[in-house]
Amino acid sequence: MSERDLVTRLLGTSGADAGCEETLALLAEYVEGELAGLDVDGLLPAVAKHLRNCPACAEDYQGLTVLAREQHHG
Amino acid sequence: MTTLLSLKESERTQIGSATMPGQLDLESRAWVDALSATGVEHARALERLHDLLLRAAYTEAGRRQHLYPEIGGAELDDLCRQAADDAVVAVTKKLDGYRGGSRFTTWAYAFVIFEISVKLRRHAWRQGRIPTADDDATWDRLAEGADAAQSRVESAELLSALRRAVAQELTPRQREVFVAVALNDTQIDVVADQLQSSRGAVYKVLHDARTKLRRRLEREGHLDQEGTQ
């Protein structure tokens, strides 16, 4: 583990963070935007930051991506 | 500066208009109309929504099965049903806030994924206790994970400064959450359950703790503004 990884693990990354509730409210837009090829990290930077800082919400994002992709192709 | 913020309306509008230009698709409109109706139409819509979200709960539970191999059978059925029940309540309660930035079904799926993830984590942890270890062994274990000898020395210095900051800068609640979640990798939903709180509220405590610690380490010259030495 590099020092950067260690700091990130313990202190998260700096910058604006949307928090769990705001991220949950916008997660569907973030995921569909990503599947549509949009620059969602640029459009919703605080959500992107939160997903890097919060493993629980990041796991939810992965699950929603799976369901949205199935729906997209279904 | 690190902030936990509400997104600006302009950000929401930008992505909403990019993914869903101006109006709901027909299926999403049908869902909203049916759930906003009364009587039999409303009851049928709730039933369809519950079926949809129950299937999604099973899909997500299956995707996470490797994390919780001990949960199955009637226990899993019960958790999925509870997740679907709670997600239906959340969706109907927040329906006025749905503005068509995504398909209705994707929006609704987000709620059931949240519910099943919380329930699986809490269920798996139900016999456990939150780690409170903030001792030499815990901090040494972190330093030992560094790549090389030089990094180990630098990491040990950083961790030593961080340990002092944890002791001196944080409130008791912030210290409890930081030690459990950041230091000992306890799931945030488990900590929230034990503290009779929510994921969002515990994350806010963690975020405030991290901000205080980061500022202290920056003041002492251990971190630059980007967060590393």
Describe the structure.
- The complex is a heterodimer of chains A (74) and B (229).
- In chain A, helix 2 packs across helix 4 (45-53).
- The radius of gyration of chain A is 13 Å and the shape is elongated.
- Chain A has 74 residues and is an all-alpha fold.
- Chain A has helices at residues 3-11, 19-35, 40-43, 45-53, 55-73.
- Chain A has 5 helices and no strands.
- The termini of chain A are far apart.
- Chain B is mainly α and 229 residues long.
- Chain B is 69% helix and 0% strand.
- Chain B contains 10 helices and no strands.
- Chain B is elongated, with a radius of gyration of 22 Å.
- Chains A and B meet through helix 1, helix 2, helix 4 and helix 5 of A and helix 1, helix 3, helix 5, helix 7 and helix 10 of B.
Give the key terms.
heterodimer; A: 74 residues; mainly alpha; 5 helices; B: 229 residues; 10 helices; 69% helix
Structural class of chain A: mainly alpha
Q: Please bin the fraction of helical residues of chain B.
A: 55-70%
Helix content of chain A: over 70%
Radius of gyration of chain B: 22 Å
Uncertain residue segments of chain A: none
Count the strands of chain B?
Answer: 0
How would a crystallographer describe the biggest sheet of chain B?
none
In one word, what is the shape of chain A? elongated
User: How would you state the average pLDDT of chain A, rounded?
Assistant: 91
Biggest pleated-sheet summary of chain A = none
Strand percent estimate of chain A? under 5%
* Terminal Cα span of chain B: 17 Å
Give helix and strand order of chain B, one letter per element, not per position: HHHHHHHHHH
